[in-house]
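Researcher: For the annotation table, I need C-alpha cells for Fluoride-specific ion channel FluC. Please keep the output clean. Sequence:
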Amino acid sequence: MTLVALVAVGGGVGAGLRWLADVLLSRVVPRGFPWAILAVNVSGSFALGAVTGASIGWPWLTVLGTGLLGGYTTFSTVSLDAAAFWREGQVAKALLDVGGTFALCALAALAGLGLGGLAA
C-alpha cells in the first residue's frame, strides 16, 4: 500500500473516531459550548505531541500524524462554532472557544511531547 493510501485510510479512521467521540461526549457534557470538539482537539494535540516526541520516524509519523490525527482533530469545526457564536452576538464565547482551544491544545501538545520523549 502506498503512503498516500495509508494516510487516506488513517484520515478516514480519524474522522470516524472524531464523529464517534463527538456523538458520545455530546451526550454527557453541558450544552451551549462545543465541549466535545474541544476534548477531541485537546486529546488529538496531546497524541500528536506524544507520537512526535516518541520519534517514531517516517513513514509512521506521517500516517499517524497527518492521517489518523489530522482526520481526528478539526480546526474548521472550531472556526465554524466560533463564527456562529460571533454571529449570535456571543463574542466572549467565540473568543473563549478560539483562544481556549488554541491554548489548551498547545499545552496538550507540549505535555505529549514530554511524555513521548520519555518513551523515545
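Researcher: And a one-line annotation?
Model: Residues 1-118 form one domain.
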